[in-house]
Amino acid sequence: MPRAHLNSSCPVQPMSVWSRLLAGLRCGGRYLFLSGGALATALLVFLSFPRYSHSSLAWVAWVPFLWGVTKIRGFWASFFYGWVTALLFHAGLFYWIYYTCRYGGGLSVGLALAAWLGLCALLSLQFALLGGSCYFLKKAGPFFPLLVACGFVTLEWLHQTIAFYALGFPWLMWGYSQWNMPTFLQVAAYTGVYGVSFLLVCVSALLAKALSCGLSRKSVFYVLVAVGVWLGAYGWGNRQIPIVSTPSLLHVSAALMQPNIDQYKKWDDSFEAEITDTIYQMGQALTGHNILLTVWPESVLPGEISEEKYFDLMQDVSARSGAYQVVGSSLSQGTAQYVGAYLMTPYQDTLQEYKKVKLVPFGEYIPLEKTVRALFPHVDILGELGVFSPGSKNQPLLNAGGILLGSTLCYEAIFPQLWRVQNKLGAKLFVNLTNDAWFFDTAAPYQHLAANVLRAVETHRPLLRAANTGFSAVIDPFGRIEYQTALFTQDILYAQVPLQADNRVSLYTQWGDVFAWLCVAVFMTGLILLMVFAYE
Hints:
It is built from 18 helices and 12 strands. The protein is an alpha/beta fold. The strands form 2 sheets. It has a 6-stranded mixed beta sheet, with helices on one face. Strands 6-7-8-9-10-11 form a 6-stranded mixed beta sheet, covered by helices on one side. The longest helix has about 35 residues. Helix 2 runs antiparallel to helix 3, helix 8 packs across helix 18 and helix 12 runs parallel beside helix 13.
């Protein structure tokens, strides 16, 4: 019996080793497949956004990730897969944070790296939740693409809302990838940027579903639906944009001022005369152009506009040109200091003001200030931060000779809530004042401009953007950039801006985030049902 047993067991050993080898190869191939999917999506997302702006890639960017996540077993594995994928593309998209912190903010190499990678890691949790959700959503059969698109919008909306009322950094919504394709942006006038994100992710999810079905009729069906969604979005958007702008009886003659003042000179007293001379000379150039409205960038003055010498300077520019001046400056009132946009009327001593509502975290205020100072007691840069106070969310609009202006500064371009409020109050024209010199020659100025394009479409109002070092731009209500400056050049943009004759506002302004709420309802309902069935 022992001999027979030995003989019968001998052939088993080589088979067992061979099986383990095959299993190892399959496992290695699986990890290679998943790694390739994460890298491919990260690369496609990176290329879809500014600075490269290959916006067509955004329609397929999520295909490798979504195809890969359907092959993963386990919630936490799916969660981690989403986080790693997002960390890869966030690190590429936000590399400029290192340069801003290191050279603009004066942080050490270690702290600048920590700020860059730490923020990327936190932002990637949004997509980790998407990956974890896909563990359940992949069991939804033909409803998988719809639920994934709704889930993507849900997480974008959640991040945006938390950032508006508390803290967050919704710098790059997925719909911003189409900033240079106005045809695909028109849905934003009804749904906000969330509708654009929905369409993009839905097409990717349909194609991923087709790949997961292999060569079959189902895969052909999903491909055809994806093509149909894309063609529908293209055809409908194309019909919304007039080939020729509709004639308007009301026009605003505007000038956008880009003084290109070096960031390191702005607060150095030895350069004060150089800066004020630049402002004076550019103001002189306005004479004879019959300008109604002049827009200067954020923090254009080397001090507060309430100081007599700076007030007199801008009053002189206003008087000589006969134009209203919108000036970005700081202003102290009592013990509080504000960043704002201030409207100066020709031949009058009064100032209208808009105080910035959403301040830049760690740039204009310090969240959890006591904790941060305790953790970094020897970092000198923190001593210069946290000095500004936010303005009220319901401020009156600036009034330039009967034309109501919606005003935002810099970082506020990424918060559609502020724009909707001002649009409801009757804003005919929006101005955005910014100083992007902190970003240097990186992708950030391009990314910042993209957000402004979406805000113009959402409100269906023209937008004048004045940036210290660029990009200054005139954007029409359909998201078309009509005029744009180059980076790091001194320039003046002159434009005749047609205004809407009536007071109608976009449906997105009226409805707000109703589309996003609908996506939340669909996603949460589907996710809960799938989770219940999974554990039965």
